[in-house]
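Open question from group meeting: does this chain pack into something compact, or does most of it stay loose? Before anyone orders reagents, we agreed to write out a predicted structure and look at it together. Recording both the input and the output here so the notebook holds the full record.
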Amino acid sequence: MDDMEMWPEVEKAATEKRRELVLQGLVVDKRICSNGGLTSSVYSLVLLNYLEVSQCPSLTAIHEDVQHLTNLQSLILCRNKLASVPNVIGKLKSLKVLDLSVNDLKVLPEGIAELKELNTLNVSCNSLQVLPEGLAQCAKLSFINVSKNRIAGFPADLFSERLDLLSTLVASDNLVEELSGDIHKLAAIKVLDLSNNKLNEIPSELSDCSKLKEINFKGNKLNDKRLEKMVNGCQTKSILDYLRGKGRKTQGEDGGDGDGGRGADKKKRQQQRKRKEKTADEQEEEDELNKMVVKVLHISEAPTELTVKVSAEVKDVRPYLVCCVVRGMSLKPGNALKRFLMAQTKLHDDLCGKRTIATIATHDVQLLKGPLVYGVKPPTQLKIVALGRKEMTAVELVRHLQVEAEELRKQKKRQNVTGLHKYLQLLQGKSLYPCLVDAEGHVISFPPITNSEKTKIKKTTKELFLEVTSATSLQTCKDIMDALIVKMAELNKFTAEHQEEAGSDGEGDGPPEHVASSDASSQLIIQQVRTVDQDGNLKVVYPSKTDLSDDISNLTVIW
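Structure tokens returned:
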């Protein structure tokens, strides 16, 4: 393609003086391939404050002319094959959001450190080995996701008092060997995920992070086995209390009087001796109590089989889908439902890359009428009763959400928006929208935006139908479904062990009832669900024997 020929989307943005431009998918990718890169006319759209180029495997580089887009506030370059990003990106002084996730980056440009307005940095799913020095100069950073890379350690200045707004740091699935005690300097840190790394120790200084609400160190082989058990149970408060006590103990041994030190040593030796005296049966019993149990129910054993038929049209829109049914999830006691919904939101923000990588939806099985069909509809024909709303077409829903987003911006006097509004840009440029439809023709899911009020889960829900959709890959769907089920098992065990009263938050039905603290009460049953093509040929069944196979020390899967 001749670079002098202006692409229709670019021409429209230039003519209408638009502030947003989204280029994504197969058609755009073919143009990029023919052109040897993005058309240079993109870089003349100096009014843009939002630019997205995604799902284009032919895009391997961004030209230095990107520096002319000085009004950009959001630059989304996810799910391409970028091998490099020019250092001049540091000249985009207004940039607040930079998403370079799911590319082939081995290094990041040092120019990122010059982005003084940057508040969100997502470089997950690349091949990064190091992070650039100077990130502390981006004093407005509040969210950093560097998960699924090959990072062995953090730059010293990342843990700096200057990053006093940094609330979320996700660095799971890397090769990090040490976490500095300077982590306590991040005064605003609320979420810290360092799961599946190479850590042997967790610094006691972590307990000084007063706002820390959620930590994840699963998948690290810690020297302190008691701490490792707490970590595998995701007991944030217990972990912080333990680290706090460990810090005091260390100070007492180093700086206390001789008797105190000897007393602590003596107590430690007694505990070690007691552990050694345990019989093999006792140890096995203790380990068994700490396990989470998931039982897989084969399709042939299921009382009622749910099948999802996938239409051919989704191939160019959102082609990948996996589903399953979960029984035994206790949502009625206390805040169990609230914790589950919060966990789903966190997965969306982190592992799902704010829904750019994948989207999760949950339904009450009792409210489903199968078989289900996963297909596409034009925006004007897709009707859904979205969560908390009346029935409307996708066009009307998107318009409503856009108006709400604009009003929120004005009220809050800020660029960022929350809730469903922040996912609207994922649909831009699409002529067909994906949807999951039941046997009565009702749309029960409209990914990546919302699912239906008709099948919404409640405290009384006994069986859940889970779906994960993605435009990235089938394995992505499986990995996220694995993570969701593991999280559900953790939450179920937590609910059972803490014996919360049902209805204690005022939402339960009937008199309060206690949950028994038994292992059986927290066991989940996962029923396999098949997805088939239009001719009935099997596409995928989840879970299969290769799923749920991660090395999770306290998860037992019964086939």
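Observations to bring back to the group:
The mean pLDDT is 83.
The longest helix spans residues 474-498.
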